[in-house]
Amino acid sequence: DAGVTQSPTHLIKTRGQQVTLRCSPISGHKSVSWYQQVLGQGPQFIFQYYEKEERGRGNFPDRFSARQFPNYSSELNVNALLLGDSALYLCASSLAGLGYGYTFGSGTRLTVV
Amino acid sequence: DAKTTQPPSMDCAEGRAANLPCNHSTISGNEYVYWYRQIHSQGPQYIIHGLKNNETNEMASLIITEDRKSSTLILPHATLRDTAVYYCQGVIMNYGGSQGNLIFGKGTKLSVKP
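Predict the joint structure of the above. Result:
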């Protein structure tokens, strides 16, 4: 079975631009979360979606938004990019049910110049 | 979510058991203890979780103290591929049973040496 897939794997954007990152969860997983990992730090929680509804939001500005589609795939959008948005963006999916851990994708490396 | 404290780094000899401690003295009764690890340049990998009882799976064992204020992750026979940053955290389950969001701290950098 395919794991969590993220696209693109790398991209470079200019300050002020907008970016959309995509995530396909493992088949059957209904929960998708997004994390930002800046170099040298642990991942920071951005959003969680479960059954297409937002279930949690981390401490990120409104420039960050996300959505989950009927097939449970998800997009993360970041507007008005800043240099500080340069990071590894991780998507994780989970099978609904007590006690399942998250499966993470390999991430999208975003560089803002 | 419980605040967790872990040593910043640890060394372990290849083939020996690696015991990684985590303090979570503020954990609430409905928070599970979860462990993840992150190998360089990869996404975090789920290892194990528990609520009250000790747990074991094919990767590791989790020992939770009776008062639930601390836990220890045990890798019984560490290999060079176990070199990674290990994170522990308290997680509350969402309605419907899906896992709540993860709060990653700085974790413990485990170096397994030949």
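The mean pLDDT of chain A is 92.
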